[in-house]
């Protein structure tokens, strides 16, 4: 299964995270398929950046975000866009029948 999750970067006691697409069997800091953005919790306020188009594309392909990644993606409106795309496809299929 493909997951969207955080991988830890940075030095000791100074964590910095990348939001990545990775096979769920890989280790936390192992090789990843694609990088979608980053999250820096130590800044005030926390700094986040996400490539929304690629995140939506991966979720539509079946990638499952972890709880933390889902929270970050929701702040950028990714989950809302995915929901809208899925409901539009369902409505389109219902109208064709």
Automatic annotation (TrEMBL):
Alphabetical UniProt keywords: Ribonucleoprotein, Ribosomal protein
Gene3D superfamilies: 3.30.1320.10
InterPro entries xref list: Ribosomal_bS16, Ribosomal_bS16_CS, Ribosomal_bS16_dom_sf
UniProt keyword annotation of Oxidoreductase present: no
Coiled coil: none
Keyword Ribonucleoprotein: yes
Gene Ontology MF terms: structural constituent of ribosome
Domain of life from the UniProt record: Bacteria
GO cellular component: cytoplasm; small ribosomal subunit
Protein's GO biological process: translation
Pfam family, any one: Ribosomal_S16
Family per record: Belongs to the bacterial ribosomal protein bS16 family.
Protein name: Small ribosomal subunit protein bS16
Species lineage: Bacteria, Thermotogati, Thermotogota, Thermotogae, Kosmotogales
């Amino acid at each position: 299964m493909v997951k969207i999750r955080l991988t830890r970067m940075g030095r000791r006691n100074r964590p910095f995270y990348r939001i990545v697409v990775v096979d769920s069997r890989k280790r936390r800091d192992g090789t990843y398929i694609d990088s979608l953005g980053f999250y820096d919790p130590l800044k005030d306020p926390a700094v986040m950046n996400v490539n929304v188009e690629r995140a939506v594309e991966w979720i539509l392909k079946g990638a499952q975000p972890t709880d933390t990644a889902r929270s970050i993606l929701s702040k950028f409106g990714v989950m809302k866009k995915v929901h809208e795309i899925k409901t539009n496809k369902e409505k389109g299929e219902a109208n064709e029948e």
